[in-house]
Design goal:
It contains three helices and six strands; from the N terminus they run ααββββαββ. With 150 residues, the protein is of the alpha+beta class. The chain has two domains: 72 residues; 59 residues, no CATH class. Strands 3-4-2-1-6-5 form a six-stranded mixed sheet. β3 and β4 form a beta hairpin. α1 runs antiparallel to α2. The chain is elongated, with a radius of gyration of 21 Å.
Length: 150
C-alpha cells in the first residue's frame, strides 16, 4: 500500500534540505566576498559595501533559520498516524482539492493527483482544523465536503 503522507513528507523534506544547502552556500559566498574586499582609498565606499554585505548575510541567515524550523516541523509528522479529524500531519481529500496539513509549500503533484501543502495557521488550515469526514466546510464563499482524512 502506498503511503501518500510519507511521500508528501519526503518531497517537502527534500525541498527544504535543498533550500538549506543553497542558503548555506550563499552565506559562505557572501562572507567570502565581504572578507576579500580590500579597503580602497575611498573608505566610505568600503564601509558601505561591508554594511550591505552584512545586511544580506543577516537576511540569508534568517531565511536559513526559518527553513530549518520548517524542516523540524515536517520531521514531527508520523506518516503512519491516521486521525479521525483534521490535524497537523493530515492528508485531507475534499470535493475542492487535496491538502497536506503540514508546512506551507504550495502545490505538489504526486501520482497524477495535486496536493496543496498548507499550514494550520493558514486561513484554510484554520477552517479545516478539527473537522471530520463528511463535514461541510465553508471557505471564501464556497462550500466543500471533507471526503477522506489520512
Amino acid at each position: 500500500m502506498q503511503n501518500i503522507k510519507a511521500e508528501l513528507k519526503a518531497i517537502i523534506g527534500k525541498t527544504l534540505d535543498d533550500k538549506v544547502i543553497s542558503l548555506s552556500a550563499e552565506i559562505i559566498s557572501l562572507k567570502e566576498s565581504r572578507d576579500s574586499d580590500s579597503k580602497s582609498s575611498v573608505g566610505d565606499k568600503y564601509e558601505t559595501s561591508r554594511a550591505m554585505a552584512h545586511i544580506e548575510i543577516d537576511k540569508h541567515e534568517r531565511q536559513l533559520n526559518a527553513t530549518k524550523q520548517l524542516g523540524n516541523e515536517i520531521n514531527k509528522i508520523n506518516p503512519l498516524r491516521i486521525s479521525e479529524t483534521v490535524e497537523f500531519g493530515s492528508v485531507v481529500y475534499t470535493s475542492n482539492g487535496n491538502y497536506f496539513i503540514a508546512v506551507a509549500q504550495g502545490k505538489i503533484d504526486l501520482d497524477g493527483k495535486s496536493f496543496y501543502a498548507i499550514s494550520l495557521a493558514s486561513p484554510i488550515g484554520k477552517a479545516m482544523f478539527g473537522k471530520k469526514c463528511g463535514d461541510i466546510l465553508m471557505f471564501n464563499g464556497n462550500s466543500f465536503t471533507i471526503n477522506q482524512i489520512e
